[in-house]
């Protein structure tokens, strides 16, 4: 079974995000970029499926400018077999545009399972996996905290309010990874060197016959308001008053 994993390039989660002086966007100059952490978990799970014998090939796909090759190579260093780069200069693609492009890649590759992160930490988007499943008319499971392939089905455990829910999906299927699905492995230098020799194919929206469209337009980005300092009150009554009128 082939597993296809989609990864997104985002600002590293350890970096403090800055906004440009003109509020046009987030300042990405000289900022460390990484694979979206939830996508990294999806890559790790796909590699574990291959190591267990449940999968035979892991293909990583990413969409964006040339810089996304760095994240594809990172996924290849983690154990994926080959990469696909969908070249586009637009870094503000909507979730639906990404889902349309991924859907065409999936139709071309015919994987048995598609894994994605449950959300992106930069835009907090959480809809690409669901849209992809709808476009393909495939079964889907979101927020997976456990995943097990059993014959022609994949059994997914997901966290819901009040407990856990277990779903059995007939493959091919789309699954999005939650934080507790696994802990991504540490990538060693020899693996990084080997990843440079793994195949990375390039395609484009035009080659895929998909028009991403312009569904989302960024108007302005503002930093959050500075947190105000605390105050001391003289009595319980004053505390209650503050909670009612100022909190």
TrEMBL record:
Keywords assigned: Electron transport, Transport
Cofactors (names): AMP
GO biological process terms on file: carboxylic acid catabolic process
Any one GO MF annotation of this record: electron transfer activity
Alphabetized InterPro entries for the sequence: ET-Flavoprotein_bsu_CS, ETF_a/b_N, ETF_b, ETF_beta_N, Rossmann-like_a/b/a_fold
Entry superkingdom: Bacteria
Domain named Electron transfer flavoprotein alpha/beta-subunit N-terminal: residues: 23-212
Entry keyword Hydrolase: no
Chain's role: The electron transfer flavoprotein serves as a specific electron acceptor for other dehydrogenases. It transfers the electrons to the main respiratory chain via ETF-ubiquinone oxidoreductase (ETF dehydrogenase).
Family under the similarity heading: Belongs to the ETF beta-subunit/FixA family.
Subunit-structure text: Heterodimer of an alpha and a beta subunit.
Protein name stated in the entry: Electron transfer flavoprotein subunit beta
Organism, as annotated: Candidatus Thiodictyon syntrophicum
């Amino acid at each position: 079974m082939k597993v296809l994993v989609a990864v997104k390039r985002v600002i590293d989660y350890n970096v403090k995000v800055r906004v440009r002086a003109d509020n046009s966007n987030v300042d990405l100059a000289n900022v460390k970029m990484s694979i979206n952490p939830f996508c990294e978990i999806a890559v790790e799970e796909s590699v574990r499926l291959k190591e267990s014998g449940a999968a035979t090939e892991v293909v990583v796909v990413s969409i964006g400018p040339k810089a996304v090759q760095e994240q594809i190579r990172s996924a290849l260093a983690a154990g994926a077999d080959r990469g696909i780069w969908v070249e586009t200069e637009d870094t503000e693609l909507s979730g639906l545009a990404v889902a349309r492009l991924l859907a065409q890649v999936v139709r071309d590759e015919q994987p048995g399972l598609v894994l994605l992160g449950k959300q992106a930490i930069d835009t907090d988007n959480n809809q690409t996996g669901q849209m992809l499943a709808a476009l393909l008319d495939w079964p889907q499971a979101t927020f997976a905290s456990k995943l097990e392939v059993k014959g022609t089905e994949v059994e997914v455990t997901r966290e819901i309010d009040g407990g856990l829910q277990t779903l059995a999906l007939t493959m091919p299927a789309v699954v999005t990874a939650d934080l507790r699905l696994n802990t991504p492995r540490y990538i060693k230098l020899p693996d990084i060197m080997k990843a440079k020799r793994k195949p990375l194919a390039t395609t484009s929206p035009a080659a895929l016959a998909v028009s991403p469209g312009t569904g989302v337009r960024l108007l302005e980005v503002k930093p959050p308001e500075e947190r105000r300092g605390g105050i001391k009150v003289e009595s319980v009554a004053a505390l209650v008053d503050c909670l009612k009128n100022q909190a």
